Protein: Pentacotripeptide-repeat region of PRORP domain-containing protein
Organism: Beta vulgaris subsp. vulgaris
Amino acid sequence: MCSRLSTRLLNICISTYCKLQRLDKAESLIIDGIRVGVLPDVVTYNALVDAYCRFVGFDAAYDVIRRMQVAGIKPNRFTYNSLLAGASRQCQLSLSLDIFEEMLKLGISPDLWSYNTVMHCCFRLGKPDEAYGVFRNIILNNLCPDRTSFNTLLNGLCKTGYTNHALMLYRNLKRHGCELELITYNILINGLCKAGRLKAARWILKELGDSGYIPNAITYTTVLKCCFMCRRFEEALEVFWEMKSKGYTFDAFAYCTVAGAFAKKGRLKEANDCIEAMLKSGIAPDIVSYNTLMNIYCKVGKFEAVYELLDKIAKAGLECDNYTHTILIDGFCKSGNIQGAQRHLQLISSTGFSTNLAAFNSLLDGMYKAGHAKRAMNLFKLMKVKDEFTYSSLVHNLCKERKFRSASKLLLSCLKNGMNILKSAERAVIRGFRNSGFRRGARELQSKIRMAKFLR
């Protein structure tokens, strides 16, 4: 009895040292214990195996297992579960499967935790059939799958694209009266949303409400993102107001996404109110929030308010990104204030900010649309870096001026330099030749485009 008590005390001390990552002390304590006749058991070594897996590596953990065997102590299920957990934590998924195979060869019966870990690893390796085989073995070995088993299976099926199978499993669980958790609903809703199946996700959300569970902010935000991804703005706003009516708090992403949706639909007052509500709620705005608000102000021509926002960004210690300045330049161009756009571009260049290509492209397009074709061509020549949007914009605008030959030369030079150009720009030039009665020119251009692409 005294010896057993001493071993138990030794295990408590070893476990404490392992949690403190003092593995040298733990090893010394085992040696001291053996000297005074207190022998370690499988629990002692299991604590060491788990600690070495967490903090050192698998070679050191296997060295402990070899010492166990030399001491005449056989590794048990908990020993191998520690190895499985370590491999899974370090994303060594193939190693997890090898450890599981080794476990079976030694005649050690896995428990439910072992099966759940291996099933999760199979899914992460993109092996849904093997994962389902592991789930089947749980039942064949007379183990009762728990909530973790079903959640792992549902999550894996959704992530590997088997959302129909996940829905069938969910229906079977409901039919057999299994008590589902909120996380189960969230997993399924998230999987359906990522697959773009908004209708099914909203139906599961309704069933979640009927089940007695209260959907949390994660549930609603997932559906909200999916609505915007599917461009179902009205449904997104319904979800947003439902969240608001139930008193859920939003993060900056939710507010900015909804404000952006209002702005796209031309409901600028509501977009502005949404951002104001975010600021009043105490959420510290990030650069994305400021960019969203700046975009709204540009659309209504409130450029003084935009510059006030730039001051606020500086006072908040945030840095403007490329998108911030592009919004302002694009706003100036769309309002016809080309000089304002040029001044801002010069301003940010003089302050050392690396002016981005998108800003130049916005100014180039704005100049053409405002009728400043010559200034636009001068800007194009000054641009050191150009992309497909630069060329496409210029080609489109030359076509609008009915300068089809200039547009075709620019188009071909772009292709010969190894760059892509938008298909719409190609079609605009060819259509322009045809509509002007130059059908032969259109055919020649098509032939040259094909040749340029072939040579590239």
